[in-house]
Protein 1
Amino acid sequence: MDALPPFKRRVSMRSVKQTPAIEDKFVRNLDWNLLYTFHAIVQAGNLTRAAARLGRQQPAISLALRRLEGHLGAPLCSRTSNRFALTPEGMLVAQLCADLFQKVRDMPNRLANLPGEVVGSLRIATISSVTSDKLNQAIAEYHRRCPKVQIEVDVVPWEEVTRRLKKQTADVGIAPARFLDVSFRHTLLYSESVRLYCGHLSPLNGRTFANPAELSGEGLIVTGGDEPDVIRRYRLEHGLGSVITGQSEYLDEARRLTILGVGICFLPEPMVERDVKSGDLWSLLPDSESFTSDIYAITLPLEEMQLPGRLFDAVLQEIGRHAPQAPSQAEPRKRSRRKRRSKK
């Protein structure tokens, strides 16, 4: 039979407001399997059917119900020989159990769709004029997977990128790296060729100089902290930059000054490709005098990153694994190495 012994009321669930300490003790001492058993009883409509569904004996189900009532200090159901009904306390606990186990059932789907649930901001600090298909694909795919995350992009000088990462005011940095600092993770985005240009208004337009030292007296536009070390060493070796006629931390503005004839400037080849084709810019040195600058996505170690940044890094790594290799990007580097060896 399903009859239960009379329940001795101790404390009504509705009569006393529990303190945080008592609530913590209740959570620690509660056997959560009792909630699952009670949920099965409510779903089945009585103890006998619940026992059959759970594959257990009816006395074990009755004992579990009494133990839960003992934890809660209130009866959860009333029974007669032909009737099973929940008490007001039982109805409350039944609803709480239904909500709890619905959330548990939803857990695998929520985990599978975690990126879509993430909110917050992805903060990207980047140098100017980055031309990376891999980065563009990563941002587009990240937005598709994490539509609730706001993507913030700040254009800053090279040195500011790592400064923001260290202060954790940026999640991802896009910049060259003077050296691969072990306190950061570096993912190569692309390698770009850098060449020396003048504008169409310059008297140097149309001329090619085999000896870079011939340009030592020309006004140079420098890009400050965004100037790669290999360029700085090269121009100092050949006396370029003894006359400074312009300066900008932003490559777009350095390009503008060059086109307007303010001076000559080292600029990334992909960035000014259209300007060269249109005749607004002219490359002053032979093909052998080009240099390669590697551009990286830079982050803190994964364990120090916030969730939006970790998810972006995962997308970037995934795209990198499937991206085809571009051997043509390595060619400028080879030319640059041969040239430097020939000068030694």
Protein 2
Amino acid sequence: MTQEEIDEQERIEYYAASVTAWFNSSLEYSKSILTLSAGGIGILITLITTFGLDSAEALVLHCFAIICFLIALISTLIVFQQNKTYIEEIQSGKNTSNDPVLSILDVIVLWAFGLGVVFTAIIGISTAIHSYTTKEKIMANETRSKVGTMDSFNRAAALQPATRATNSQPQTDSSSTGASTTTSSSTKTGNTNTQNQSVEKK
């Protein structure tokens, strides 16, 4: 084998390896888009069923994100099918140019998946902000409830004078009772002395 034949063989092998790498890269790209789109849809549905939706904006964002991932997923499946047809046409010599359908599908997949990622990121940021503000409101309500409890204890001091006034009434009543008892005793003693004096005179 001459040197020219060796160089030609190397060029053929290099070209074959390059084409194989190109096909593998394109195939892995499509597989990654397919897997990530399906995973994104699953994550969004799990978030909705687990945590629910707290506003109409959150519902719209979740719907847009799911729709974008769904478009990317369906478009990728169509790309796999169209790739098969395109390769058959190239091998049979029917087509020697780029497939316009595949070109459109590539753009659709890229934009749909990108928008799905953007909407998912917005959902994550809004969820984090909502969680933070909710915790702040709960802490503020707890602080207010503690302050209100302290005010109610301070008002208890106003009950002290009323308690003393209530306690002084029984003492007054007992004093009045004692005075009336002493007066009645003195009256009875005076009447008895008068009767004794009248008996002695007789």
